[in-house]
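Reopening this one. Same input as before:
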Amino acid sequence: MSSVREVLDRQDRRVLRSRAALMAAAVRLVTERGTTALPVADLAEAANVSRQLVYLQFGDRDALLVAAATDLVERELMPVAGDAGAPVRARVLAMARHFARHRPFYRAMLTGSCAFGMSQALNRLFGSLITREGLRATFGDLDDATAQDLATLISGGTGTIVNDWLIGAGDPLDPEELTDRLVRLSTVLTHGDRLR
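Same output, byte for byte:
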């Protein structure tokens, strides 16, 4: 006879597997179809789960899609982009290559029904790379509110540039070009007083 803990562990693993399957199906279907206007039934079928499970685990389709995008960024991009020991250009280039590789997915996400949620999620992820200590080292002694506002401004601006590039730039995307743009902006922000 199984213990209560073993039963709960099996249930937890099942929940994690079904969430992972739903998120992988969401990325695949949005990429293939180029739209976020996917029926929940299609997402559930692609993940081999019930429609009810989508609603139980995510609430609605758009929440599933944003969770899938966030998971993709956290799994593939954040380990490289968040490596504070790596040179800034290498981290920015890794980000640009990630978004270029997954352009059909992100383009659909940023122009579809969950565009606002997607932009917020990306801004949070970009913001997580900006530390108050780093801001203070660059801009001097900032109070907490000013440091937070500056981090929001930088992450939101970066997000807007990336969004515009993903949506509007010609094919094929040039990760080196986006990297150069973002590194130039970083240089202006961090060394602006020396450029005059």
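So the earlier flakiness isn't reproducible anymore. For the record, The first helix runs from residue 4 to 33.
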